[in-house]
Design brief:
The chain is an alpha/beta fold. Among the domains are: about 40-175, no CATH class; about 225-365 and about 455-590, Rossmann fold (3-Layer(aba) Sandwich). It has helices at about 10-35, 40-65, 65-90, 115, 120-140, 145-160, 170-180, 185-200, 270-280, 300-320, 330-345, 375-390, 395-405, 405-420, 430-435, 440-455, 490-495, 540-545, 555-565, 600-605, and strands at about 225-230, 235-240, 245, 250-255, 285-290, 325-330, 350-360, 390, 440, 465, 470, 480-485, 505-510, 530, 550, 575, 590. α9 (about 270-280) links the parallel β4 and β5 (about 285-290).
Length: about 600
């Protein structure tokens, strides 16, 4: 459409009318699809019920304090009066300072249109003021800590959903783009929204990256190696050496099974696996199967036995070594901790020379915001759904984790994909983030209840695996903990609790950034530093207050810990081991077929119910 006062021509009006008609039909079809999916599952319904109860508790607490209620009303009236006066002055052409500004890290309001147009600027300030008042009110409420945490989380989700940036008519950038494209951006966005809904389980899994730009084994997960062992649950990869000699004791990595292992092997320039191989380690890595209903009865003990324990046996066949250095990441680290404790209780502790925990929870007393989804009623709903399906769809888990950082991991993509109609950029980390795995019913339900809800792992004998009661306090294996300061999945001050459990020597290091970037932090990028402190006081903040900040990556620090303490003997290196040279033949090239299994692939194999 032409700008200025010139009226649009008949042809332009007809073109606009045609676009609007197409958008309307697309929208109606989309609404039909959404209504067909609107019946919540057992677990989703319990979340809705908990949200309703949280808001009711907050309202009751506010109404029981008449003074606080009056103050809230007064502040809202004062805000509206100030905003009205401010808006009139801006409309009159006067430049006045903003009543409230968005946080510098808030990318939703970067477009100049929010500040150049008095109307949009008023809408923005109205939203920010309201957001502030809601946060202030909740902070003053006298509620149990867990209830207040849940209320804060649900309120934040609602406030984020109501942001003016999420709607066509109140987002100046989207309005401008809609005029420029004559609505094509909305038509493209609706089409992408339908595609994403079709690829979602519950909620909406927004596309975060151009998935066509990546292929496992071609431009990610490309470190050379071979699968040398497999069972129903794992493929064991042995990586090809890049040095003439290697450390005698091999390294076994136990990644999480909530996502694919290749977060540690994205590209050559940020691959932790490649770096470890280059340092002279014989690296073995577990690639977990993407389970479906047929694996519903697999337990935590099965993951331990068919995972790290069978892998250790395969490693002994492959290179003749009876002990390994063990490394576990996230839930893979929690499994690693139970494995070491199990081996200790069964008099086989010497099979592990050292153990490294990457962003790993052992003490679940404070799991962070993920605890919102782990109340008794919600867990009951999850268990019922697991019983019905035999697995938890990994896309549901991904949606839940994305809500912990909803502004960056949900709404930013919602606006770009569906309102602007843009294709997401190609980003390997976000490709990995959307390449999820299902979780077996028996394992996942047991993990949520015994670890998160009941925190039994820290209790002596609180966890029993294959008839053996384990106790982390009996572990004498040397331990290295690396956590991330901004981690929202495994809070560092919670992972720190694991340092207080084993009786063996413990080193704790705190990296910068979050759950992924704080771990995948290669030395040549020198992006984040890390903190060290040889003392291990009971309180994590006390540890941090006395810690020393170090520039660079924690990777070389870990390597020095391994060599200086003799967990790998630099003086007794052996000839490099090539996959297939031992007793186990090469089954297929890395990364293997297990890691290529997607959730749709797995579920497509599930027989339809009659």
């Amino acid at each position: 459409m032409q700008s200025g006062s010139q009226q649009p021509s008949r042809a332009e009006w007809e073109q606009w009318s045609g676009q609007l008609d197409t958008i309307g039909k697309e929208y109606q079809a989309l609404m039909r699809d959404m209504l067909e999916r609107a019946i919540p599952s057992e677990s989703a319904q319990t979340v809705y019920d908990d949200m309703r109860d949280a808001f009711q508790s907050g309202l009751n607490a506010l109404m029981s304090n008449p003074m606080a209620w009056s103050q809230v009303q007064m502040r809202l009236v004062q805000d509206q009066a100030a905003l009205w006066q401010h808006g009139l002055r801006e409309l009159a052409g006067e430049k006045v300072p903003a009543l409230v500004e968005p946080d510098r890290s808030d990318r939703r309001f970067k477009d100049p249109g929010w500040y150049e147009d008095p109307v949009y600027h008023t809408i923005l300030q109205q939203y920010l003021l309201f957001s502030q008042r809601v946060e202030e009110v909740i902070e003053t409420l006298e509620l149990p800590e867990s209830r207040k945490r849940n209320l804060e989380f649900y309120a934040r989700q609602c406030i984020s959903a109501l942001a003016p940036s999420n709607f066509v008519s109140t987002n100046p950038e989207v309005v401008r783009l809609t005029k420029e494209t004559q609505g094509q951006n909305l038509l493209d966005g609706l089409s992408r929204l339908r595609e994403d809904l079709a690829n979602s389980a519950e909620g909406l899994n927004v596309s975060m990256t151009d998935r066509s730009a990546f292929s496992v084994g071609e431009n990610i997960a490309v470190t050379p190696g071979s699968v040398i062992y497999e069972n129903e649950l794992i493929q064991l990869i042995q990586y090809s050496p890049t040095t003439e000699t290697v450390f005698k004791t091999p390294l076994l990595i136990v990644p999480p099974w909530i996502n694919k292992y290749y977060i540690l092997d994205l590209r050559e320039d940020n691959s932790f696996v490649k770096w470890l191989v280059d340092q002279g380690h014989t690296v073995f890595l577990i690639s977990w199967r993407n389970p479906g209903p047929e694996q519903r009865d697999l337990t935590w003990a099965d993951y331990m036995q068919m995972g790290p324990i069978e892998a250790m046996g395969a490693i002994e066949q492959a290179c003749g070594e009876k002990s390994v250095n063990l490394m576990g990441y996230c839930v893979g680290g929690t499994l690693t901790a139970t494995t070491v404790a199990y081996l200790t209780s069964t008099r086989r502790a010497r099979k592990v020379r050292s153990v490294t925990y990457l962003a790993t929870l052992q003490d679940f007393s404070d799991p962070g915001e993920i605890g919102v989804f782990l109340t008794e009623p919600i867990l009951d709903g999850v268990e019922k759904q697991l019983e019905q399906q035999g697995y938890l769809d990994g896309r549901v888990m991904a949606f839940s984790f994305n809500l912990l950082r909803e502004k960056d991991l949900f709404w930013s993509f919602f606006v770009n994909n569906y309102l602007k109609g843009e294709l997401p950029a190609a980003f390997d980390l976000l490709y990995w983030n959307t390449d999820g795995t299902n979780l077996p019913a028996a394992t996942h339900g047991w993990y949520l209840r015994h670890m998160y809800l009941e925190n039994r792992l820290v209790e002596p004998g609180g966890i029993e695996l294959d008839g053996v009661k384990i106790d982390l306090r009996k572990v004498s294996t040397p331990s290295y903990f690396i956590s991330a300061r901004e981690d929202h999945i495994a809070k560092w001050n919670s992972t720190y609790g694991g340092t207080q459990l084993p009786k063996g020597p413990v080193t704790f290091v705190l990296g910068g950034s979050g759950h992924i970037a704080g771990i995948v932090n290669p030395p040549h990028k020198n992006k984040y530093g890390y903190w060290t402190n040889q003392a291990l006081p009971a309180e994590p903040q006390e540890w941090l207050d006395a810690a020393t900040f170090n520039e660079g990556s924690w990777w070389p620090h870990w390597q020095a810990w391994m060599t200086d303490n003799g967990y790998v003997d630099s003086q007794k290196r052996v000839t490099a081991r090539t996959p297939g040279e031992g007793e186990l033949p090469m089954l297929e090239p890395a990364p293997g077929r297990y890691v290529r299994q997607t959730i749709p692939d797995v579920l497509a194999e599930v027989p339809a119910k009659e």
